[in-house]
Specification:
Mean pLDDT: 89
Largest sheet: 4 strands, mixed
Structural class: alpha+beta
Number of strands: 8
Number of helices: 5
Strand order of the largest sheet: 1-2-3-6
Oligomer: single chain
């Protein structure tokens, strides 16, 4: 099962172009999957610590640039994955306050313990996975756009007073479901004259019936200071 599988991280460096001075324009993409067991808060925090160390080591080992002689310009640095904790559950407070979030920005998050109003959960209740209301992409989209639909089919954040994910008890819970799948970005380590911002963030329904997760997608815009971003 997911909770018994070995976990790790995949790091990727891509070249997306070059400057007129033949400097490489590159970006970093990292993906991981953290420990799944609900009580393993300490394990997940340790995994986040390792992730930051490995990210730093990967960038150092794959870069031949120096400040005085920049052979490449970094345009973006994105971290994504199933982190197996959400930003609203009281049991996930340690992960919510991890130092990773001081470097990487979560477009869906206002701060530890509070998501933006438009953000929704990404974990579907497996009991209703094949119900007609969510078994096709169009039906799933329609259901996720409804507050009642989200309360019926998403797993919700746990709290000291509301620990059940049973459909009949979700009405009293606040929020829009457990968001455990992340796409983060950072502005640290990028070429100083460039700016990066989120142009679009999406919750995807095309895999309806094939997974108990809602995939997420993020479009970044990198502004170089020239006319075309």
């Amino acid at each position: 099962t997911d909770s018994l599988a070995s976990k790790g991280a995949l790091f990727l460096k891509v070249q997306v172009g070059s400057t007129p001075q033949d400097q490489r324009i590159v970006g970093y993409i990292s993906c991981t999957h953290l420990q799944a067991l609900a009580g393993d808060t300490t394990v997940r925090c340790e995994q986040l610590d390792l992730l930051q160390d490995w990210l730093s080591d990967f960038r150092k080992s794959t870069s031949s640039s120096s400040t005085a002689n920049p052979e490449e310009l970094v345009a973006f640095d994105v971290l994504c994955g199933d982190l197996n904790f959400d930003n609203c559950s009281s049991d996930d407070k340690l992960e919510q306050q991890h130092s990773l979030f001081t470097r990487y920005k979560d477009p869906c998050r206002l701060g530890p313990g509070e998501d933006k109003s438009w953000a929704i959960g990404t974990l579907l209740d497996p009991e209703g996975l094949y119900d007609e209301e969510i078994c096709t992409p169009d039906n799933l989209q329609k259901t996720m756009e409804s507050e009642d639909g989200r309360k019926r089919y998403l797993v919700f954040p746990t709290s000291k007073t509301h620990g059940s994910s049973q459909k009949g008890r979700k009405a009293a819970l606040k929020g829009n479901g457990r968001r455990i799948d992340y796409m983060l970005f950072t502005e640290e380590g990028l070429y100083l004259e460039w700016k990066v911002e989120v142009e679009e963030f999406s919750f995807i329904t095309q895999l309806a019936g094939l997974t108990d997760h809602l995939p997420v997608a993020m479009r970044l815009m990198v502004s170089t200071g020239e006319e075309d971003p």
